[in-house]
Design a protein that fits this description.
single chain; about 425 residues; alpha+beta; seven-stranded antiparallel β-sheet; two-stranded antiparallel sheet; 14 helices; 13 strands; globular
């Protein structure tokens, strides 16, 4: 009998190893990626606002589309706020049903304690429209001196949307322009303040840094006025947080509580009146003021605050409609509901000192998908794995390795026996 080849014996010994290992590699991704679909955000706007209805958010030619603002691992203000359903405190009446269902998201909170009394989809990403001017004003209060002056430009006067009527070449006080911006929602005033703070890009960087500093992690300002722009994002929770911080500034609180002011007229002309556009200030008992907003993409947004019996509350409505009644009246109904609840009612809290924010996501090409949200599981070669399934995957690997090692030892022993037999047969 011709001798057997040792090479062919070793080749046969290896054959069972690779099919098992290959099957393991195929099976593990199928097992470990299953939770990714199951754990996908249930809330439709957990990462980004709804699609725009116009071209206002299309980046200029040659510029990339911003990736969504990173989602924190845990919701700021409490775990319950991750829920997009209506939240009300146990053993307390529910909010007025028509009002609660109207806006896509809202938050009702105590300005002093920070307690959130009730909410709906508090952290959903929405567009702020002109309510972002609260952040613009807060940034200006930290960057500028109110007794300083600025000279309005033609670019200010040409701003799209609502304007208070700044006249090119006229000199205004910074405090005067800030107050007019909040009362009349002037986009010309917001642009003038941004120029005074170093220009629009520099101002947006300062606004976004301030938002992150105070824990408004759903927010990215794309314009200082609230006009829609690439990457614009906020939430009802963030607007309530920003407003709460702003109300600690006397100049801001006084500005939104002012029903009427005078602005200089053209040379040789008398000053003209500017009235607050906030109906909570003008028509709600104890109204402290707030901010209004509207764009085609954002729809109606509204911030209203009031005080009663030693309590100060704020109601924030985002992506609302003037139906069944105007959003300002819906806000008043929500404030009525809040004042009817006992002190201490809470489904979460407004946190005005930032937790550790996720790393900022730089602008990227539109065809590159954003990184997975923090907290969605740890990424690996095998996909996303979390919790018990990760332990199961580890156990499967350990068992497979043990089986393969045992089989490999048996195959080597058999190969040695065969080699010895062949050596004895063919000295």
């Amino acid at each position: 009998m011709p001798p057997r080849s040792h090479r062919s014996t070793k080749s046969r010994a290896k054959q069972p190893f690779w099919p098992v290992f290959a099957a393991l590699l195929v099976a593990l991704p199928l097992l470990t990626t299953a939770p990714a679909a199951a754990q996908a955000p249930a809330c439709p706007n957990a990462e980004a606002p709804p699609p725009a209805v116009d071209t206002s958010e299309v980046p200029p030619p040659g510029q990339p589309a911003p990736t969504p603002v990173p989602v924190p691992e845990t919701p700021v203000g409490g775990d319950r706020l991750a829920d997009c359903a209506l939240l009300s405190a146990p053993n307390q009446p529910a909010p007025p049903p028509d009002v609660a269902a109207s806006a896509a998201g809202w938050v009702l909170a105590d300005l002093d304690s920070g307690e959130i009394l009730a909410a709906k989809d508090a952290h959903a990403r929405q567009r702020p429209a002109s309510t972002i001017k609260v952040l613009t004003a807060l940034t200006a209060l930290r960057e500028l001196k109110l007794d300083d002056t600025l000279v309005a430009t033609q670019e200010d006067a040409n701003q799209e949307g609502t304007r208070i009527g700044l006249l090119p070449g006229m000199t205004y006080g910074v405090g005067q322009v800030l107050q007019a911006m909040l009362m009349g929602s002037g986009n010309d005033a917001a642009h003038a303040l941004a120029v005074k703070m170093g220009g629009v890009p520099a101002t947006l960087a300062k606004m976004n840094a301030l938002a992150a500093e105070i824990g408004a992690l759903d927010t990215r300002a794309a314009t200082p006025s609230g006009l829609d722009g690439p990457g614009m994002s906020t939430s009802a929770y963030d607007l309530a947080t920003i407003f709460r911080v702003a109300m600690r500034e006397p100049a801001f609180a006084n500005a939104i509580a002012t029903p009427m002011m005078f602005l200089p007229g053209a040379p040789g002309q008398p000053p003209f009146e500017l009235w607050s556009d906030n109906q909570v200030l003008r028509n709600y008992p104890g109204g402290l003021g707030g901010k209004t907003g509207f764009t085609d993409d954002a729809r109606h947004t509204f911030i209203g605050s009031a005080q009663r019996d030693g309590r100060r509350l704020v109601a924030v409505m985002v992506r609302g409609e003037n139906s069944p009644v105007r959003l300002s009246h819906q806000t008043m109904a929500m404030l009525d509901y809040g004042f009817s609840l006992p002190k201490g009612t809470s489904v979460g809290e407004l946190v005005t000192t930032s937790p550790r924010a996720p790393e900022a996501v730089p602008a990227a090409r539109a065809d590159v998908p954003p990184p997975a949200a923090v907290g969605a599981g740890q990424s690996s070669f095998f996909g996303s794995v979390t919790g018990p399934l990760f332990l199961l995957a580890v156990a499967l690997v350990a068992v497979a390795v043990a089986v393969l090692l045992r089989r490999r030892r048996a195959q080597l022993a058999q190969a040695r026996r065969q080699a010895s037999a062949e050596g004895a047969e063919h000295p």
